[in-house]
Specification:
Blueprint (H helix, E strand, L loop, with lengths): L2 E5 L2 E3 L5 E8 L7 E7 L6 E6 L5 E3 L7 E5 L4 E6 L8 E11 L2 E6 L3 E5 L2
Parallel strand pairs: 2-11
Antiparallel strand pairs: 1-3, 3-8, 4-5, 4-9, 5-6, 7-8, 9-10, 9-11
């Protein structure tokens, strides 16, 4: 059974920083692409950042230069968020994705709330 558990969310002031963590357990291996997505109230879930097994990263334009995604060898994924803005307020979800023999495997965490407020 695959499980992704996010942590590190909370309330932060504009301009502040937070570091989100995602702990993966079960059959998640290094070749999975890991990512962070977010969903703000009244909006659809959107991509924040992804990181491939090679280390290649991709960021949404809205977070480019402010957020950094990383992963380690213990199945953990991180999102360092700096210079936070009001519009970063959302529930942030961890994602693991891979295509194995033509079948897509896609897993999600339960989400962690990030609120940017003065």
């Amino acid at each position: 059974q695959v499980q992704l558990v996010e942590s590190g969310g909370g309330l932060v002031q504009p301009g502040g920083s937070l570091r989100l963590s995602c702990a993966a357990s079960g059959s998640i291996f290094r070749f999975y692409t890991m990512g962070w997505y977010r969903q703000a109230p009244g909006k659809q879930r959107e991509l924040v950042a992804t990181i491939r097994s090679s280390g290649t990263t991709n960021y949404a334009d809205s977070v480019q230069g402010r957020f950094t995604i990383s992963r380690d060898n213990a199945k953990n994924v991180y999102l360092q968020m700096n210079s936070l803005k009001f519009e970063d307020t959302a529930v942030y979800y961890c994602n693991a994705n891979a295509v194995i023999y033509g079948h897509e495997y896609d897993y999600w965490g339960q989400g962690t709330q990030v609120t940017v407020s003065s």
